[in-house]
Amino acid sequence: MATETKNENPGDVENSIGMPSAVFVEDVEEFMKAEENQEVEATLRRFDEQHNKYKFMERNLVTKKARLKAQIPDIKTSLDIVRYLKSKKDSKEPTETRFLLSEVLYAKASVPPTEKVCLWLGANVMLEYNLEDAENLLSKNLEQAKTSFGNADTDLGFIRDQTTTLEVNMARVYNFDVKKRQAQKAVAATSS
Known about the structure:
Strand 3 and strand 4 form a beta hairpin. Helices cover 60% and strands 17% of the residues. The longest helix is centred in the last third of the chain and has 61 residues, at 131-191. By secondary structure, the protein is of the alpha+beta class.
């Protein structure tokens, strides 16, 4: 009889973050007979360490997902602006617009037709691109951000499933220990 129910191959990575799967303990009594599981406290401590690792990864993924959720609209807006400038590059008329100086302050601007645009890349770095290259870069960045967002969502689901599995394992091992101690007390009480 198997002591644990495992996903097809234990330790297989089923996510993009490289976290191994938690193993569900199907038969607690058999599981506790294993040499590394003789002490309940040590087994629970090992489960708790793994649980803490999953919780740490969950917090990181939630932060990453929130950052990507804010980043995707910014990339879309930049891409729309580059496409608009691209559509107006053959025009002779300047484009009248307002741009954001601070959260509540806008300035009027007259933008002449252009072949180039400057993009903030982050870390106080700005580079000048021609419109075609800027559109390609922003399109690629948008797709990568959407893919990363989807992966983060999938990985969060995976982490939450593993966390639940570990919590169930911890509860089952703890309950096994309580029943074992109660049985020992009952035996000691009847033999007295």
